[in-house]
Amino acid sequence: MKLFAAVLLIALALTGCNEVPGTPAPDGAVQELEHQHLVLPDVRLDGDTSVESALFERRSVRAYTGESLRLNEVAQLLWAAQ
Length: 82
Description:
Elements: H1 2-14, H2 51-56, H3 71-81
């Protein structure tokens, strides 16, 4: 279940990504390219659900809240997706 939740959270995080990388900014728009390093919080390694259980119990959820993800949730998703 936690694996599915992680995948779902990644999908929710990406729903706000509507720009195509490498495309020029529209006329009149300012495009700033700034590279910053972001230090992510430590991930949790003490989950109670095995990968097998998560896959077996997975289900599709199509209800979204519109809430933004917290930094620790994004960090956990990125770690799980590596």
